[in-house]
Amino acid sequence: MNLNNAFFEAAFGTANQLPESDLPEICFSGRSNVGKSSMINKVLNRKSIARVSSTPGKTVTVNFYNIGDFRLVDLPGYGYAKVDYKEKERWADLMESYFNSSRNIKLVFQLIDMRHKPTDFDVSMLEFLNSYEIPYAVVLTKCDKLNKTEFSKQLSVLNEELGELVSDIPVIPFSSLKGIGVGDVLEEIENSLK
């Protein structure tokens, strides 16, 4: 798997703009500011192929990154309270159209901030992926912000909260800062493309 030729391909903000799926797609999903863009940068070993912001809700489009024989897809973050109703509606329509348009989705990385309990949105997203039989893995971001005791405690909390939704799927602690979990993520991508 060669990631060296990766490039930002396009961004789409409405459902009717989404192109047909002509390559396998690996998606990154999660709430606003959970670290999707940072994770893409780290996985591709690039500083800023995906635009990162400290302000939640900056990714409002579906962003496609061409890797050659597959694409990475950065989905807009959900759950940001300061977004108005119309914008939430647009987001819901965009996401629904993305997942219901016969795309060649090989894997969804569902990102959850390891420092916190999963939100209702996180659980709903996992239930959606599960019920539609879309392959997924859970990535626990910002794991470097926890000490050993907090790490173990949060892992137990997350397993308890998510139960069946994570019983047979990979759960990967990840740090964009320290590179923890990058190898596991690359392995999951490679396995999903076989």
Q: TL;DR of this structure?
A:
The protein is of the alpha/beta class and 194 residues long. It has helices spanning 36-43, 85-99, 120-131, 148-162, 182-192, and strands spanning 7-12, 25-30, 62-66, 71-74, 105-113, 136-141, 171-173.
Q: Please indicate the count of domains.
A: 1
**Largest β-sheet summary:** 7 strands, mixed
- Provide a count of the helices: 5
Strand fraction equals: 15-25%
End-to-end Cα distance, whole Å, is: 11 Å
CATH class: Alpha Beta
User: How are the strands ordered across the major sheet?
Assistant: 1-3-4-2-5-6-7
CATH level-two architecture: 3-Layer(aba) Sandwich
Provide structural commentary.
This protein is an alpha/beta fold and 194 residues long. The protein has one domain: 3-Layer(aba) Sandwich (Rossmann fold). Helix content is 31%, strand content 20%. The protein has five helices and seven strands; from the N terminus they run E-E-H-E-E-H-E-H-E-H-E-H. It has helices at residues 36-43, 85-99, 120-131, 148-162, 182-192; strands at 7-12, 25-30, 62-66, 71-74, 105-113, 136-141, 171-173. The protein has a seven-stranded mixed β-sheet, sandwiched between helices. It is globular. The model has no long low-confidence stretch (mean pLDDT 89).
